[in-house]
Amino acid sequence: MDTKASSPAAGDAPAKTAISGKAIAAILLSIAALTFVFSNVGPATLRFLFLQFTMPAWGWFLAVLIAGVVIGSLFPWFRPRKK
């Protein structure tokens, strides 16, 4: 019987995990979006019907970014279906 093959030796390095292309794209898009958000620091006014709100532009962009992430996770139309 060979018990050596079923258990890793104490000196073996842990298995490496590769980062997928989707993860790299998501990280790069997140960095680009957050750079855009935080580079717009001037005040911006939002008018909706008879309401008016003024706050820094980065706050509006960040709110829209978060809303997009939430909506994207609620409607997984483009995800592969489980078999």
Task: Outline the structure in words.
This protein is an alpha+beta fold. It has two helices and two strands, in the order H-E-E-H. Strand 1 and strand 2 form a beta hairpin. Helix 1 packs antiparallel against helix 2. Keywords: Membrane, Transmembrane, Transmembrane helix. This is Lipopolysaccharide assembly protein A domain-containing protein.
Distinctive features:
83 residues; two-stranded antiparallel sheet; 2 helices; 2 strands; elongated; membrane; transmembrane helix; Lipopolysaccharide assembly protein A domain-containing protein; transmembrane
Number of E-type strands: 2
Number of helices: 2
Q: Assign the structural class, choosing from mainly alpha, mainly beta, alpha/beta, alpha+beta, or little secondary structure.
A: alpha+beta
Globally, the shape reads elongated
| Pattern of helices and strands | HEEH
Short description, anyone?
Helix content is 45%, strand content 14%. By secondary structure, it is of the alpha+beta class.
Q: Topology, please?
A:
Layout: H1 21-39, E1 43-48, E2 51-56, H2 57-74
Antiparallel strand pairs: 1-2
Helix pairs in contact: 1-2
Keywords: Membrane, Transmembrane, Transmembrane helix
Protein name: Lipopolysaccharide assembly protein A domain-containing protein
Organism: Microbacterium awajiense
